[in-house]
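S.,

Sequence below, as promised.
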Amino acid sequence: MLKLHQWTEGNETYRGTVLRMLDADGVIVPGYRIAVASNMDFHLRFMENFQTKLWSMLICASLVILLSAWLAVKFAHRPLHKISEEMSTITTEKLNLRLPPETVPVDLVELVMSFNKLIGRMEESFQKLANFSADIAHELRTPITNLTTQVQVSLSKERDAVEYREILYSNLEEYERMARMINDMLWLAQSENGTLRPSFEDIDARAELLELFDYLSAWAEERDITLTLEGKCPPMRGDRAMLRRALTNLLTNAVRHADPGTRIQTHLATDMNFVLMSIENLGDEIPADHLPKIFDRFHRVDASRQSSSSGGREGSAGLGLAIVSSIIDIHGGAISVTSQDRRTVFQLRLPVALGVSH
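The prediction came back faster than expected:
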């Protein structure tokens, strides 16, 4: 193996090696050496220039890449900046505005559509909140006005103890009505926020309905209405207090609006893993345009109805059916209503108890 040496002489750099001289038989000839060397300045300058150019090219390429990336990001994000600017213009007074999906790149269409759906839900919720606030103000204004008027009348002149007692009883009815309304609104708020914790158990629907019939029998007899129960079903799974409240609201609503001399028919049946229950009464029909909103808060088919017509029972403020719908949703069931030919039917679908086979 040759051993190379490098040295500098006279500001010039050399690289070379020393070889021994061999004769024709390959034997080393003593006293003779062959020195071979080459000037390296050209190669060294070439390597220095090449290294300088290489670093310059790398720096320029890096700058070009960075500039290209910056321009690409800037132009690629331009639609996002435009969308962001349009989003910033949407306020509570402009929730009806929507972003046009046809003006954005294809990759952003799904984002714009999702945002429009979000704004739509926000608009609907905001509108419900505004309507709810207006309904609360309207519903509370009536009893407060009644209380104020009664107090003013009672103070207008001297009265005996009997008259004052009657006024206090009248005021107490208004207070109880407001208390029921506030409790119902709090219950609905807790239901929507998911803070209610139902206690599920197996419930005999037929037994519960018969108990409610006993509770409502006096009021039904007073209105010359008969309560009937047909069919049977397996135990259903649910919170007893909640379901009793829902059924009470439905039966109360049926008694309230049934024609005197008629009967309210309640029927039980089973469909696979669900209990089917229907409550039917004869009376004034619910107009078709009211049916989709019948379970909304404070919705009344006849806004002129007075609280006295309800017999002092829950639901007179237009919250009873909203509570029913919320309870059925909590139980994973469904509720619907039909009204035609003076026949109104509420139909419930609730899950049967666990482990029950059909």
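Strands lie at 5-9, 12-22, 28-39, 200-203, 226-231, 236-239, 263-271, 274-282, 334-340, 343-351.

Coffee later?
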